[in-house]
Amino acid sequence: MKQRGRGTLEESEADIEGCKLRAVKWFDNKPVSLASSFSSAYPTKLIQRCDRKTKQDVTVVWPETVSTYNEFMGGVDLLDDLIAYYRIRMRSKKYHLRLFFHFVDVAVINSWLLYRRDCKANSYNKNKIMNLITFKSDS
């Protein structure tokens, strides 16, 4: 892909128990790999990217999967950031315990986000809405 240049893409599709899963590999500055059961690489868009060598804008093909990921990635980044603040520390060599406590963290963060959304929808005073550490310790 590096030899073919920026904007090169490859897509593979698999049908797993009636669900179509697509793997897309797109070459920008580096290869980007994504798997999706939701979107495909097509239709593609043309976008302007800055070329480091020539210091000029070049037109590059942009797959729909990358566009969709960039549009909705904020929720995943927010969840990762919030989990990092007050993570349940579990030092164990057994991976299933670490997975369990990670999913407990995910559940608590998601419930706190829902709690905050409901408080804002019901016009609660900002001083009465619990912050994350208080919510997590009370749960």
Automatic annotation (TrEMBL):
Lineage of origin: Eukaryota, Metazoa, Ecdysozoa, Arthropoda, Hexapoda
Pfam family, one: DDE_Tnp_1_7
Keywords for the protein's UniProt record, in alphabetical order: Membrane, Transmembrane, Transmembrane helix
Domain PiggyBac transposable element-derived protein span(s) in chain numbering: 19-112
Parts of the chain that traverse the membrane: 95-115
Tagged with keyword Plastid: no
UniProt organism field: Ignelater luminosus
InterPro entries: PGBD
Name the UniProt record assigns to this protein: PiggyBac transposable element-derived protein domain-containing protein
